[in-house]
Amino acid sequence: MSLWSSADAIAATGGTCAAPWEADGVSIDTRSLQAGDLFVALEAARDGHDFVQAALDSGAAAALVSRIPEGVASDAPLLIVPDVLRGLEDLGRAARARTKARVLGVTGSVGKTSTKEMLRDILIKQGRTHASVASYNNHWGVPLTLARMPQATDFAVIEIGMNHPGEIAPLARMANPDVVLITTVAAAHLEAFNSLEGIAAEKASIIEGLKSNGTAVLNADIETAAVLQNRAAKAGVKQVLFGQMARDFELKQIQIIRDSTVIQAQINGAPVLFKLGVAGRHFAMNALGALAAAEALGADLTHAALDIAAWLPVTGRGQRDVISLDPARENLTFELIDDAYNANPASLAAALEVLSLSEPHNDVGRVGKGRRIAYLGDMKELGPDEVAIHAGFAQNIHLQHLDVVHCVGPLMQNLWHALPEHQRGRWVETAPEMLKGLGHDVDAGDVVLVKASLSTGLGQVVDAIRKLGHPSAHNKIEDE
């Protein structure tokens, strides 16, 4: 059965089409388009109409357009609508309406993508599961995810993000979830909001899309917990709370053991012990929220608690690798923690804790002493206090346990100046400048963290550090 027939797409969008077609997928990028996809000609940095013929030549079943592009035959399989983004949204709403799937909407200042991936790994063992790709959580990512959802889906996990006020509620109404999960509220995107309470209010607006008999899974430990709970109470929906202050999914103890995390919890009054194959207090909280959301969706909690142990963070979000400097000598390795996709004060603090608890190895490299080394790039969109926030991390308790801190970007220069001399590594303005000298920075036995906002470009530093050696035979840390 195809994902979309021309008849169903016309009914959903009110568009017109000169020739019938059937599509097995939906794509917005000719570089990743698969034969049989419906190509959506969005107008963003580039006008998608310029690529319609290329998409058809690559095997696209049809294209969603607002006009017949120059050079494309008038009888080509085109679904013509007044506005392409609105057409994609119509497909997303229609896909949501025709499925009986239990749908979860997840948002939060930190951890929404990792938590979404945890839920994908949990739910896929218990039913046909559909989830957002990468961080497709914005005004086109949410309708695209919905439009790609097969009708026979059992569980769907839709990530919903924002940069400015008023963005979450319309996307939440489009997804119309049975359950919503708010991972946390933290100082991110402060440039667009007046306060942390303003961010919390925007995150809480995901509840506006919740079904009337739905459930809101909320973090009970955060400073703005009352904002979230009051919004849920006003909407009259069921609340499930998680965290140390929670009554439902109560976090009792977190134990970080090298590269894994053991979590003790009290869930609905019963003791539960489960494990993550990755180190991190923030991952433990995300996991507890994921289990609460999975149960609210109707998943088996016991199986979920067992299956979450297999989850691993994806590239740029805490992935941990062992890099071998000499394949002939097993002990000449160092560890790399790739957390270069996103950064704000809460996630940076969490990453520093993970690094501080890591165990370097001595007497294996030219330096002799294994070190904890951090490459930190600017955190963006923090508003008028951004300078003080960056400099203030010199006092972070976990940073005190690091040996060397290298800094990238004009904002991180404030941290660099605030560091004591013995911790101060190199400061450069741009990521490419940091590439020079990496071979002297890192040695066997070290544990290396790279953490920054994506736009800082520290992914280049991650790639260059990986190229200092070779993937180890034990590339992923065993318990991760």
Written description of the protein model:
- This protein has 480 residues and is α/β, with parallel strands linked by helices.
- The protein has 3 domains: 4-83, MurE/MurF, N-terminal domain (Udp-n-acetylmuramoylalanyl-d-glutamate--2,6- Diaminopimelate Ligase, Chain: A, domain 1, 3-Layer(aba) Sandwich); 99-310, 3-Layer(aba) Sandwich (UDP-N-acetylmuramoyl-L-alanine:D-glutamate ligase); 319-476, Mur ligase, C-terminal domain (Protein-Tyrosine Phosphatase, Chain A).
- The chain has 16 helices and 23 strands.
- The chain has a 9-stranded mixed β-sheet with strand order 9-10-8-11-12-13-14-15-16, sandwiched between helices. Strands 21-20-19-22-18-17-23 form a 7-stranded mixed β-sheet, with helices on both faces. It has a 5-stranded mixed β-sheet with strand order 2-7-6-5-4.
- A hairpin with a 2-residue loop joins strand 14 and strand 15.
- Helix 3 (84-98) packs across helix 5 and helix 4 (112-123) packs across helix 9.
- The longest helix is centred in the middle third of the chain and has 17 residues, at 281-297.
- It is globular, with a radius of gyration of 24 Å.
